[in-house]
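User: Assemble these into one structure.

Assistant: Restating your components, then the assembled model:
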Amino acid sequence: MRGLFRWHGKWWPGVIPLVIFWAIAAWTSTEPLEADLSQRATAALKDTVLDKRRIAVSGRDVTFAADAFSEDGRLSAVASVEAVPGVRIVNDETRLVPEAKPFVWSAERDVARVTLGGSSPLPSSKSKLMEAARATLGGVEVADRMNLARGAPPRFDNVALLLLDQIAKLKDGKITLSDNKVTLSGMARELGGREAIAAALKNLPEGYSVAANDVKAPPYIFQAYKDPVAVTLTLSGYVPDNNVHAALVAAAGRKFFSEKVVDNLKASIGAPAGFAAAVVPALGALSRLSTGTLVVTDREVKLSGDALYEAAANQIRAGLGKEFPQGWQFKADIPVKPAAAPVDPTVCQQLFADLLGKARIRFESGKADIAADSAGLLDRLIETALRCPSANIEIAGHTDADGEEAANQTLSEKRAQAVADYLIKAGLPASRFTPVGYGSTQPIAGNDTEQGKAQNRRIDFVVR
Amino acid sequence: MAYLATFFWGWLLASLLLGLAMGWISVVQHGDGVSKNWKRWLAALAVALIAASLARVVPGRFGYWLDLGLIMFALYLCGCAVGSWLRDWVVSRSTPAA
C-alpha cells in the first residue's frame, strides 16, 4: 500500500491518451445514446394516453412535453420516462389538456360534408366518433375539427354516437351537445325524419335533455301534371295514407275523362291538415285546363296552365281559393289558350259526339244539379261550341226507364236546362241552345241491365 | 450506471487497460512525479467535477461528457493502482532478500 503513495505521482502521462480516448468516445457515442434513449422513452409511454407528445433527448437529459388527460396520467407518464435506464434528468414540460367549460361538441351537415367540431374527451373517443360517422353516413365526407378537452359529461361517447345517428337523418343542419343539453336545427332528409329524430332523442341517457329541437320537416309535396300530348295525368309526391291515395286516384279518374292516370304517389306521414279537401278541388281545376301543372307544397297550392276560354280562366282564378280549407293559399297562373280555328257545324257535331262518347255529363242522383266532376267535360263542350258560332244546338236530355214516365220527362227537361244554363253562364248566347227533354223515349241500350240504364241516362248535343 | 456500462463498455475497458499499463510502467520509471502543490490543485479539480456531476448541474450533452470522462478517469485510476501494485509485487519477489 505504501507503493501506491510512492508511485501515484507518476501516473499522469497516461492521462494524455485517456483524454484522447475520452474525446473519441464522446464523439462517437453521443448520438447513438440519444437515439437509444429516445426510443426507450417512447416505448415506455406506449400504453399511456397522451396528446401532442414530444420527446427530445440531449445527452442523457430528456425533455418531455405532452398533454395529459388527468393529473394521475400526467404523473405516471413522467414517472415512466424517469424510470427508463440511462435517463439522467427529465425536463417535465407536460401539462393537462385544457378543461372545456361548458363542454361543447357539435356535428354539422351541409351539402358537401359533415363536420364534427367542438371538444372530445380522449383521442380514442375522437377516432371512434369519426369511424361511426363514416359508417353511418355512407359515402358522405366527414371532416374532423374536434379538439381534445377535459370536462366531458358522463357517457359522452354514447350520447355523441346517438346524435351522429340523428345527423344521418338530416338533409342539412347542426346538432350541438353543450354539457348535457342537446340542441338541434336544420331540415330532415325525408318526411317523417323529424318525428324519427324526436323519437330517438327519448333514448338519451339519464341527465341529458333536449334544450331545443328546431328540426324542420321537408315540404310535403303533391304534384299533378296534365300532358295533352301523351294524354296522361301524372300524379307524384306524397299522400297521407292509402285511403286518401285511393280516393284521389278515383277522383282523378272521374275528372279526367280522356287522360290515363299515371300514379306515382307514395304514402307518408306529415301531411298538412285538410290535404284531401284541398287537393280534390284543385284536381278539378286542373281538369279544366288544356295543359297544366298542379303543385301542392305544404299548404300552398300552385296551379298553372292554359284555360280553354276566358270565362273558365276567371272562374278558376276566383273560385278555387274559396273551396280550400282555412289557412291554405292559392296561387294561379292561368292564361287562356288561343282560340282554336272555327269549323263547320258538321265537324262540331262530330266533335260533340266524340266528347260525349268518352264521358257523360254527370248529375247528382235524381236531381238536375251538374256534378263538379263534369266541369272538365263541359269546358271541352263549350270550347267546341265556340268553334262553330253559327250552329244552333239542341241539348237533349234522356233518362232510363226506371220510375214514372212523367217524372223522367221532367227530370230530363231540367237536366237539359241545367246544361244550357251552364253554357250560357260561360258566355255563349242563349239563342243558340234549345234544351229538350225526351224522358226515356229514346233509349240507346236495353233498360234491363244497369249498364244499359247508365248508357240511357245521358245528355246529347245535336247540331241543327 | 449499468445501462451506461453496457453501452460503452469498450471505452471503459480501454481506460482500465491504459491504467494497468501506466501503473505497470510507473513503478520502474525514473523521473519526477507531480509536485505536492499540483496534486492538491488536481485533487480539488477532481472533487469539483465529481460534485458537479453528482449535483447534475451541467446540462445536456456536456453533462453526459462530464460523466463519461469521470467514469473513464476513475477506471484509469483503478487500473493504475492495480498495475502498480502488481509490478511492485513482481519486483519485490525477484529481488533477493537482503
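Chain A is about 40% helix and 30% strand.
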